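Hey L., structure's done. Input below.
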Amino acid sequence: MNVRESPRRSTQAERRARTRDALLESAARGLSRYGYGNLVLEQVAREAGYTRGALYHQFKDKQDLTLAVSQWVHDTWQQEVGTQVEQESDPVAALLTLARAHTVFCRRDIARVVVALRIEFTGQDHPIGREVERGYQALTDTCAAFIEAGRAAGSIPEGPPAEAVALAYVGAVEGTSIALAGRVPQDAELVAAAAAGALGLDPRTPRTPRTPRTPRTPLTPRKSPH
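Output:
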């Protein structure tokens, strides 16, 4: 006789983790749409399927929640984008892969969190603003390192300081990917073309080099990008 095993009940820690993830994703959507100042915690909890009390059981206030969202978005970005970039040994390939993968990431309704927070807290001495700026600086530093490696290999032309080009590259990737955000099937290639132009490459043919020419540059030489 076959004895059917009872399904395993989830542990309290597993239930707590699911609740936390649902609240973080709901808050990320809210921050992307409305910004920090207009974020309503009761609405965040309701859209996640929980009560406001459940939210406060996980996060002490809106600032605590937003800082947790910033880290959660970074971790998600690292899994979906960063891991692809880390597989590239050529700096141009890494930068173009980042542009394409970030475009796919921006099709999600959580992708505008960092940009929205950065705009909202610009010029303010605030924990959220400082955290966002640290992540943004880390990303531009990483891109500058790729640009310097590409120039050393001869695959990226000389020009303005690498830090300035990195800022232009990040701006092109973020702005174009958010503007397109899944509007056309070619959004990733259009963003790659914008990124190639910022790097001084031919934007008509933003193709990934096939033959690695330099040792791999780490994706995160400093703190995480988001």
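The two ends are 55 Å apart (CA to CA). The longest helix spans residues 127-153.

-- N.
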